[in-house]
Amino acid sequence: MSMEMLVASIGACGAYVYEKVLTNSQVEFDFKQVEISYERAETKPAKPLSRVEIVFSLRVAETDQGKAERALKLIAKNCPVMQSLDPEIVVVENEEDFTSFNAQNQVLEGLYQLNDQDETIPAVAKALPEISADKLTYTISLRADAKWSNGDPVTAQDFLYAWRRAVTPDTAPSYASLFVSSIKNADEIYQGKMKPEELGVEAPDEHTVVIHLIKPIPYFTSLLTFETFFPINEAFAEKQGSDYGTSSETTLYNGAFTLSGWEQNSDTWQYMKNPHYWDQENVKVDEIQTTVVKSTSTAVNLYQTDELDRVVLDGEFSKQYKNDAEFQNQNDTKMGYLRFNQGRGKLLKNTSLRQAISLAIDRKTFVENVLGDGSIAATGFIPQNFVQNPETGEDFRKESGVQQTFNKEAAQEALKKAKSELKQDEFNLVYLTKDTDTEKKTAEYLASQVNEVLPDVKFEITTLPSNNLQERYLAGDYDIAFGQWMPDFKDAITYLDMFTSDSGLNHVNYNSPAYDQLIEAAVNTDASDEGKRWSDLLQAEHILLAEDYAIAPIYQQQIALLQNPKVTGVVKHSFGSPYSFKYIQKTTKRRNYKMETTKTHTHDCTNKESHSHEHDHGKSPNISFITAMLLSGYHIILEGITDTVNESEKQKKFIPNVHILMTLAAFGAAIIAHFLEEYAEGRSKREITNLLKMNPTEARLIQPDGSVKIVDVSILKIGDKLQVLNGDQIATDGVIISGNTSIDESSINGESIPREKTVGDEVFGSTINGNGTFTMEVTKDSSETVFAKILQLVNQSQSNLSKTATKIQKLEPRYVTIVLIVVPLFIALGPFIFNWTWEESFYRGMVFLISASPCALAASAVPATLSAISNLAKRGVLFKGGSYLANLASIKAVAFDKTDSGEQTEQQFIDIVVAMEKTANHPLANAILEKFSAIEALNLNVDNQIGT
Question: What parts of the sequence cross the membrane (predicted)?
């Protein structure tokens, strides 16, 4: 198979990344970013915030006979561009470079890797390590066939060289803490007290690595899968100097892929299959190309049109597709939480105030109504189903007993206590958040709910781009901020050790000697006693959350997505690098006519001018159809084959019989007819389905007590008050009573530019709220909204067909009756009139019946019309029916204003148009004004007549 290109898109920070398919195969990535902090502690190296998950979607081409496609297309969303391929140096500036981490996991490989169950399995190592009785020495043998992309063997020295670099202060490694807390002499080397060569690692020979630990670490083998423990080819790296890892040309690879066409901060590059990779037989693609594109909705549209095989959903999209047969919820370990800055002023140093805020948050309502992607309301900081008791197997979350849950009375009581302790009655707190839709929605919801439960606590929401937010966050210039965390390795300590008083990651400035002591015990004194260590970690989380309320966990992320069930090999990890895609593939067997499943379609029968029947067509003829054709024409086919063979032998060259050609033509015509009918009908169904999916189903109803409840749109009454958050689909028609925003009204009027709205302005159901939050009052019943009327018109159009469709439907019943009468007469009279045999007469009668079948003619008349009407309706152009649509071809004039006498001149008409467009700020209006000028200046009052 010739190599095709697999195209991936990795987005610049904050960009939504999607792109049109270049080839017939595609994989799409969705990277979601998180605020990252980095700071050097006095005695311990800081570890950057753990990478947030990289959620991705994919498109993989179908292949024949079970063979894997050799090319894929990758597309990423919401991620920073890649900074470095050096596994020891991750550039941590304004946010964590998790794009680099994910890329490194595809092009580099360590001693071990994770399988699809997140179990540690050998990679460059031949087997799991031999561990000494005291659990302090790990001996690991390397496979002899592991090679670099230049053909050099991967040796033990490559690992030693990389690890020594990782603890050298001059290198400024981001993850030195992983070595400092585990390997002998690493801390002393990092502080400049010892030389890198004294690190507790050795290489007895080229294929053996020995590691000496400072204490038993139960998760150390799992830790070796992390990118910081990847090898580096010493000779190549020294030759490149400071340029190593800054481009695809200055990096050497030992993973499943190599990289091509990448330089620092570039937004395009290609993954190429590594011909020297030891496990290349299991790599199913040859090339992956990456580039930057934008828009989440684009991905959904591409999935609906079979351009993508996997797409990650969020917010309204998650709710819209939650009942779809291909909808999935994928478990994840990312935790979202509120950071209470206890180092800024006196307010959040007060435990009672932190407790009051945490207990005032209804997490269940938040994940259901704001996130809507299946995420789980968090009661603690260690996620569900992540780590289990080593002795009993009990899940940490279940055994912990920590319950930070919504409790209005307890929250108000805690606030009362805080007021007494702080001698203050009102609290205004600065809430710092990123300018992404999800985080703005989160901030607005949390601020609203806390203030509802605790009227004297108000959040001043400060929305900033990621760059500026990081500066404020690292400077401690905030009271509350939203954080996200995903683990580096599979152990609870990866969530808990960042809150010790001497941690470089303790940006909430939490200080608890009791907590520090428990973490110290879990890391050191109790490290070799699994039972005691487990107890230490349970107690530590209890102090952090149930006693001190140092942070407020909000949710455990779940990934909502649509995925084609034929796609396999998508490996999502719960820790470490988020994804591995060397096994991604999609296979399918060549279509076989005798095994092809068929699809049912129904023609409408709501009135006498239409009919109803159900039958199977599928995308190709099924077994019954093929059998009927063979039985009816077998002797013609047999005659054609016999004559072709005899004539070819006689002429000494291939001479096909005309019956052979007619047989091929008959089968070809049947296949083409079925394909065209299926295509037309499928497109019609798809357009109507997409239009119906735009119909709102839920609303945020404001209750009499001020709380907000998600309700079905059908129960709304005129006068109800609704809350609309940024990004929400507006549930029904109404008027804004508080707030300002911009609204995408393209579903109503076809305009692509959002319209600014403020108090008193009308809003319409099915439109999308933009960057503001507002309260509206319902002014119409759900059956009387503008969008409801659009749907009514589309439904009416099904019975108002074009002239052609109407004629066909009127003719069809009579035509069928005539054919059913003529065929028996044809068979019965054949022997007497044409001197046919009875066999020949029956055969010719069947041929006449098949050729006269009206089904395809009738079925093909309506779908194209319905597809056009529904597709236009989505763009704000309404047709009452097919007859009006058909008349477009003969339009000779347009009546601009039917109330006018119709006698104006062309210039008078232009004057009116110019006067109207003066009131608009749309680019098309500006273009019209530039093109035309009014001879007689008119002043017109222009009103929006939508919905009247």
Answer: 658-676, 815-834, 846-869
Report the SS3 class of residue 621.
coil
Residue 183 CA to residue 199 CA, distance in Å, equals: 7
Question: For position 90, what pLDDT does the model report?
Answer: 53
Average pLDDT, the chain: 75
Fold topology of 333-556: Dipeptide-binding Protein; domain 3 (3.10.105)
Neighbours of 172 (CB within 10 A): 13
pLDDT band at residue 456 under the 50/70/90 scheme = very high
**What is d(CA 342, CA 480) in angstroms, rounded to the nearest whole number?**
9
| Closest among 369, 396, 703, 395 to 555, alpha carbons compared | 369
Nearest to 469 by CA among 33, 35, 92, 14: 35
What φ, ψ does residue 719 adopt, rounded to 5°? 100, -15
**The predicted structure's pLDDT at residue 884:** 64
Tell me which residue of 914, 874, 929, 871 sits closest to 751, measured CA to CA.
874
- Between 160 and 52, residue with greater pLDDT: 160
Pick from 12, 28, 578, 607: nearest CA to 303: 28
Picking from 922, 872, 752, 683, the residue whose alpha carbon sits closest to that of residue 295 is 752
What is the pLDDT averaged over residues 797-822? 69
Query: What's the gap between Cα 938 and its chain centre?
Result: 51
- The predicted-structure confidence for 253-262, as pLDDT tens digits, reads as follows 999 999 998 8
Q: Which CATH architecture has domain 7-309+564-586?
A: 3-Layer(aba) Sandwich (3.40)
Lowest mean pLDDT among 181-185, 192-196, 367-371: 367-371
Distance CA 853, CA 236 (A): 73
What sections of 887-922 are H helices per DSSP? Answer: 906-917
Question: Element (H or E) spanning 331, and its range?
Answer: strand 327-340
Rounded distance between C-alpha atoms, residue 912 and residue 872, angstroms: 27
For position 290, what pLDDT does the model report? 66
Reported as type and span, the H/E element at residue 340 is strand 327-340
Global pTM? 0.57
If you average pLDDT over residues 595-600, what whole number do you get?
Answer: 36
Distance of CA 703 to the CA centre of its chain: 33
pLDDT tens string 852-874: 665 544 444 555 565 666 666 65
> pLDDT tens digits, residue range 725-779?
877 889 999 999 988 888 888 777 766 678 889 999 999 998 888 777 889 999 9
pLDDT tens-digit map of 518-541: 999 998 888 888 899 999 999 999
Angle between helix 923-931 and helix 906-917 axes, rounded to 10 deg? 140
Burial status of residue 648 (CB atoms within 10 A of its CB: 0-12, 13-18, 19 or more): middle
Amino acid at residue number 874: K
Q: Is 290 helix (H, G, I), strand (E, B) or coil?
A: strand
DSSP state, residue 368: I
Q: Give pLDDT tens digits for 208-221.
A: 999 999 999 888 99
Which residues are known to be catalytic? 897
Residue 677: pLDDT above 60? no
| Domain map (residue ranges) of the chain | 7-309+564-586, 333-556, 592-664, 698-784, 893-948
Note the CATH number of domain 698-784. Answer: 2.70.150.10
Query: Which residues 6+ apart lie within 8 Å of 528 measured at CB?
Result: 135, 215, 216
Tokens representing 708? 């907000």
Nearest alpha-carbon partner for 232 in 210, 254, 204: 254
Question: What number of other Cβ atoms are within 10 A of residue 238's Cβ?
Answer: 11
Distance, CA of 534 to CA of 537 (rounded, Å): 5
CB 53 within 8 A of CB 101: no
Q: Are 777 and 735 in contact (CB under 8 A)?
A: yes
Number of CB atoms found within 10 A of residue 921's CB: 10
